[in-house]
Structures are given as structure tokens and as C-alpha cells.
Amino acid sequence: MKHPNMKLLLRLSTVAAACSILATLAPAAPRLLVMNGLFATMSESRPDPFLGHMLVDEKGVIVSIGEGAPPAAMKADQTLDAAGRIIMPGFISGHSHIAASVRRGRLPGMELDGLIDNPVPFFRAEFYAAGDLHAFALHGALDYLRHGITTYFEYPIRPRFLGEDLYREMFAAELQAGARFVYGYNVPDLPPAEARQAFLEFKAYAEQLAGGDPRYLRLALAKTGHIGRWGHDFFATEVAIAKEFGLDLQLHFLESNRYQMQNRADFTMMEQAGALEVGLIYGHFIHHSQQILDKSVAAGARMIWNPLSNGRLASGLADVPKYLKAGMVVGMGLDGQSTADLADPFENMRMGLYSLRMEYNDASILLPLDLLRLHTIGTARAIGVADRVGTLEPGKFADFLLVDTMEPDTGPVHDVYATLVFACSSDNVDTVFVGGEPVVRRKQPLKFDAAAVAREAHERVAAMRKRSETPALASGKP
Ligand SMILES: [Zn+2]
Q1: 109 C-alpha vs ligand 1 centroid, how far in Å?
Q2: Distance 100 CA to ligand 1 centre (A)
Q3: pLDDT value of position 477
Q4: Among 248-262, 313-327, 371-385, where is mean pLDDT lowest?
């Protein structure tokens, strides 16, 4: 042996190898123990908030949750003393256009059709450069996390003629951002065989990129094309893909006041295309008729209520108490930051609740806990992921918010649910956890340089605008 300590080194490496074998045989230590928190689990089996503890395993899944102090033997890699804080599940947005994060404050006096009729530059494929949609989607997904939204249904907007490479950037950025999502693929407007092939290629791409990452919850479809401009044949293509692969299909339906008659007529076409035979999720569903409501409930269709967006665009007020009574599953959404410019779920709950109370002249029409449930477990049910998120219960992901009612101070807490809904905003969210790991503290992402993400998004929008003002491009392709 040339090295004098070679024998010792060999012995040490043998010991190290033995230790690593033991480490793989022994169960990994739990990741996190939360104690002294005031738990608002949103679980129907625990309707009242309680002081307690929660244990999270190494995969970010809740092992146990209980009242009082944890047993002395309960240990984890990290311990979080949540004294004086409320622990609630992360919010879920059931209808979201993440890349719209760079379109806040645009077209302030317009309704939905005004947005659609002003496609330059954001709805026109030729103005996008490589990297734009990645930057915009990263900006939007981080913005969601900063406001306490830990899961969403992504309904990307695919400008016509946008190539798959640019389209895929949104998926890649959102996977990187760290929230959980259901991805609603927009089937391209192509003949059926080509559209199916494009779907299969995207599915393979998404599965390969995610590589089993539990933040990618599942694939779904998000209807391509705008309200009032649907065609039967293309719709039938989307429905056929949803049917063949067992996917939910989300669509904007009965949103705009202006298109309500057209949309009601479209319902017949939807029935003819077989849409009621797949898992339908309606974004908005405001201007319903009794017949459409009855048939939709019978078909198991779910709806996503977006109060901030519906107010911003003067779309109208969804009759949520009526839908709930009829047995419809209702979720809530932020609908992208181009129409819920401040994506604060607390604001969304207040806007919805207060609008209904004004409409009904009845303060008991819905209570704060109803709103909290709608924006968490209700939405999880609506988008088909209630087995994994939406409440804090054993077996679900430890996606939760540490809410601090002392900063900014709301005054004494008399009723936990009322304080959360009436008196809190996303400024009260101290820390956001996904899978038991902190990802945002006091609105600052912990794994990203938020200033750099913002700077890139701003610069890219400025460059995009410049391109759209170049006459050769602006008057070019459709
Ligand atoms: Zn929308």
C-alpha cells in the first residue's frame, strides 16, 4: 500500500458503505413536526378549529394530525412551533391562466369580448419570442404561491398558430415554480388524427419532464377557442380525446352577459358532441337556465366560481347557493391576473360572499367557513384532486399556510373562520408550505430571486410590445 493510511481509509469506506445500506433499510425520519398551531383543517370530520400538532413524512405527506401536544416520542428533522398562528390548507384555484400575470390593468373599461377583440400582442402567436411564455408563466405561478395558492387548474391560452415548442414553455415553467397543478392541455385546432397525435406528444413530453414529480397532479383538457365561436366538429374532436383518455374537460361557459344566449344555444351542440359524457368543468357558469343546470348536475358537471374576474369584467353574479342546493360541486378560481389583477384568494372570497349577501339581502346565505371550504376542498373536488389536497388529513400532501393574524394585526380573534375571511388578506400569510417544505415567507419566494423573475418579465413584455408595433409584423400573419 502506497498511502500509509490506505488500510484505515478502506476500513472507513467499508463502514460508510454499511451505514448507507442501513440508512436505506431504516425508515427515513419524518420531514416536519408542526406543534402548537391553531388548526383549521377544512375537513368535515373536524368542523371546529383546535390547538394541535401535525407530522409530515419525508415525501411531504401528512402522517398524523391531532389535538394538544405531540407525544414525546414524535420527532422529525424539522420542528415548527406555530404558537399564535393559524394553520390552514393552501388555497386552490380551479380556473387559472397563469401566463396572464403580465397583463394586469389592461383594457380597464372592457368586458370579456373586449379582451378577446384586442388580441395584440398577447393573443397573437407571431409576437412571442422563445422564452417569453416561460418567463410569464414563472412570474404567474410564483405570484400564486406568494398569495397562498398551492394548487391550481392551469387553463393555458394558446394563441392560434403558436408552435408546440413555445406552448410547452408554460408547462416547464410551472413545474419549476413549485406549486401543484392539473394541466389543461389546449388541443390544437387541427383535423382529428393530427390533433390526437399532438395531444399524445404533449402527454409524453409532460410525463417525461415531470418524471413522477408529485407537483404535476394530472393532465386534463382546456377547451381551445373563445366563447360564442365554437364549432361542432372541433368540439367533437376534443370530446373524443377526453373520452379516450378519461380526462376532465374544462371550458369557459355562460360567462359573458353578451354571449349568454349564444352559449345557451351552444349547450345543445355540447350535448350532440357528447360533452356531457366526459368530466365537464365549467369556468364561470353564470347565466344558466334551469334546464341547463338540471342536465349539468345530472351529468356530474362541476363549476368554478371566479368572483373577482366576474366583477372586473361585469360578467355577472353566479347563483352559487342555488347550485349548491341543486347538488352541483362548486369550486373557486382566480381566473388569471388579467382579470383578477390582484390574485388574493382572501379578496376573492370576500368579493363573492359580499356580492351574494347584497343580492340576497341575507347574511346567512353563506358563512365564512363555506367560503373557506369552497376555495380549498370544494375546488379540489371540482378539479378531481380531493384525494391528495384540499384538507389537512393523514394521507394528503402537507400543503398549508401559516397565517399570522398579528401581522398585520386584525385585533383579537373571536371566530377563527370569520377572521380569516373578513379580516385577513394574503399579507397575513407568514409562510407557505408545499409538501411540508417552506416555499414563500412573507411574500418572498425562498427558491427564486423574485426581483430577477420580475425584471425578465417586464423586459420581455416591453420587447414584445416593440415587435407588435413594427409595421411589417403587425400587419402580417393572422
Ligand atoms: Zn378564464
Answers
A1: 18
A2: 10
A3: 43
A4: 248-262
pLDDT score for 472: 60
Mean pLDDT of the chain: 92
Q: How far is it, in rounded angstroms, from Cα 126 to Cα 135?
A: 17
DSSP 395-410: TSB--EEEE-TBTTB-
Helix boundaries (H) for 117-187: 132-146, 164-177
**d(CA 142, ligand 1 centre) in Å:** 19
Read off the DSSP letter of residue 218: E
Domain 27-90+392-447 has CATH 3.40.1080.10: no
Residue 219: strand, helix, or coil: strand
pLDDT the model gives residue 214:
96
Full DSSP string of 220-280 = EEE--S-TT---HHHHHHHHHHHHHHT-EEEEEES--STTHHHHHHHHHHHHHTTGGGSEE
At residue 263 the predicted structure's pLDDT band, cuts being 50, 70 and 90, is confident
Beta strands in 277-398 (DSSP E): 279-284, 302-305, 330-332
User: For residue 314, is pLDDT > 80?
Assistant: yes
Specify the 3-state DSSP secondary structure of 301.
Answer: coil
Q: Please tell me the distance between residue 252's alpha carbon and the centre of ligand 1 in angstroms.
A: 6
Structure confidence by residue, pLDDT tens digits, 183-208:
999 999 899 999 999 999 999 999 99
Q: Find out whether 308 and 355 touch, Cβ atoms under 8 Å.
A: no
| Residue 136, pLDDT above cutoff 80 | yes
Please report, rounded to a whole number, the percentage of residues in the chain having pLDDT higher than 70.
92
* Options 2.40.10.10, 3.30.70.260, 3.40.50.720, 3.20.20.140; CATH of 91-389: 3.20.20.140
Q: Is the pLDDT of residue 15 over 70?
A: no
Domain regions of the chain by residue span: 27-90+392-447, 91-389
pLDDT score recorded for residue 369: 98
pLDDT value at residue 225: 82
CB 157 within 8 A of CB 191: no
Burial (CB < 10 A; 0-12, 13-18, 19+), residue 437, is middle
How many angstroms does the Cα of residue 228 sit away from the middle of ligand 1? 14
- Compute the distance from residue 416 Cα to the ligand 1 centre, in Å: 31
Q: How far is the CA of 381 from the centre of ligand 1 (A)?
A: 19
Closest CA to 203 of 215, 187, 181, 189: 187
Tell me the CA–centroid distance for residue 54 and ligand 1, in Å. Answer: 36
